[in-house]
Structure formats: C-alpha cells, structure tokens
Automatic annotation (TrEMBL):
PROSITE patterns: GST_CTER, GST_NTER. This is Glutathione S-transferase. Residues 1-81 form the GST N-terminal domain. Keywords: Transferase. Its EC number is 2.5.1.18. The keyword Transferase applies. It is an enzyme of class 2 (transferase). The keyword Transferase applies. One of its GO terms (molecular function) is glutathione transferase activity. Transmembrane segments: none annotated. It comes from the Bacteria. Residues 91-210 form the GST C-terminal domain.
Length: 219
C-alpha cells in the first residue's frame, strides 16, 4: 500500500513531515495540492474538511497534524532514524520542544504572514506587534537552550528538529533572527545543512515567489 501525502512543497508544516520522510527514506506518493488540479483538491477536501495540510493517507486510515503524522510513521513505518526516543522522559523533552516550535515560532510567524495578505482595512497591527514580540522572546529562550545543544532535544536529530527546520527557516524571513541570537543562527545553519531538510528546501525553490512578504535572496 503506497502512503499518500497531501501537501505542498512550499508549506512549512509539509516540510516538517517531508523532512521526517526523507530522514528514513520512506516511500510515499506526493498528492500535490494545487488549484489547477481540482481532482487532488476535491480528494483532500473530502478527506479533511478542516483543509489544513499536510494530511497522510495510509489505506483506509487518514492521519492529520504534522506531529501526529511523524509519530505515526515512527510507529508503523519505522526506519533507521528514530525521531522519537524510546525512553519516555527523553520522548517528553522532544515533544516539549516540538510544541515550542509549533506554538511560539510557527504560530506567530504565520500570524505576520497571513496578516500581510489581508486587505489593508482588515489588518491587525496589535496582533502583529504581539507576534513579533513573541518571536523575540522565543528566539531569546531558544538561544540559551541551543548554547548547550546540537539538536533541539540534545545529541540526536528528532521530531522537534523536523519542525524547527522549516519554522526557523521562514521565521528568519519574516522577523529576522538577529546577531543577538548566535546559537539560534548556528542551529538554523545546521538544520539547513541536514540533507533531509536541504532536499525539502531545494524542492520548494520554484515556489519562492509565493512568499507574501517577498523571499530574501539567501538560503
Ligand atoms: N496544526 C497543523 C497546521 C497545518 C497548517 O497550518 N498548514 C498550513 C500550511 S503550512 C495550511 O494548511 N494552510 C492553509 C490555510 O491556512 O488555509 C499541523 O500541525 O499540521
């Protein structure tokens, strides 16, 4: 049975799952979400009316939410790279860092981007200022954590790094990670050098013009 992933290469949450799939060389069929492919869009809408992607389909089972998809892959299609440690407390640390990147890096980053896509009159400057403040706070906290670590949860690349990679990638484009956060910048560089994420970034290059704030000429 071929795994099907409904996703788009430029989406950060999709890159989170693609990084996990590439880490383990897990075979899958990409059902690329594109408005000029109504068949795929209709399949996706029927499977998941919430219409947030990525979405994994394994036979009769539908798995939503990037984190849950990665945990599912580890349980049902384990590969050489274990992305969630077997020891419960070590796994808890990975999950805590995964939540940190979703809630305090990706969520404020997306707030800024989505706000920029609204008509001028519907914008939310206070919400955007709060999101920028949250990113500064999150960069500061992460800088202290990463002073002591190679990967998000310690010595081993994990689920938390799968999310950190695209979220820090786009966060820097949205609200620059300044020189006050050298350990975050060095970590982002390590993530970009990781072959699994580097592949996801390369596959998304053709779509850079989609970035609503304008993609910078780097990375
Ligand atoms: N909580 C979801 C978030 C997924 C998400 O926000 N995906 C974005 C793409 S990066 C999306 O579906 N955007 C479409 C929309 O907001 O309508 C997860 O972890 O998978």
């Amino acid at each position: 049975m071929t795994l099907k992933l409904y996703a788009h290469p430029f989406s950060s949450y999709c890159q989170k799952v693609l990084t996990a799939l590439y880490e383990n060389g897990t075979p899958f069929e990409l059902r690329k979400l594109a408005h000029d492919d109504p068949q795929v869009m209709a399949e996706f809408a029927a499977l998941w009316p919430i219409k947030r992607f990525p979405l994994l389909v394994d036979g009769s089972r539908t798995v939503m939410e990037a984190t849950v998809i990665i945990e599912y892959l580890g349980l049902v299609y384990p590969g050489p790279v274990r992305l969630l440690p077997a020891a419960p407390l070590a796994a808890l640390e990975v999950r805590a860092m995964d939540r940190f990147f979703d809630n305090y890096i990706s969520t404020p980053q997306q707030k800024i981007v989505f706000d920029s896509m609204r008509p001028e009159a519907d914008r939310d400057p206070l919400g955007v200022a709060d999101a920028r403040a949250m990113l500064d706070t999150a960069y500061g906290w992460l800088n202290d954590v990463m002073a002591e670590r190679e990967w998000a949860a310690g010595d081993h690349f994990s689920l938390a790094d799968c999310g950190a990679a695209p979220f820090l990638f786009y966060a820097d484009w949205t609200h620059r990670i300044g020189p006050a956060y050298p350990h975050v910048l060095a970590y982002r560089k390590r993530l970009l050098a990781r072959p699994s994420f580097a592949r996801a970034v390369d596959e998304a290059r053709p779509y850079r013009s989609y970035f609503p704030l304008g993609a910078p000429d780097r990375d």
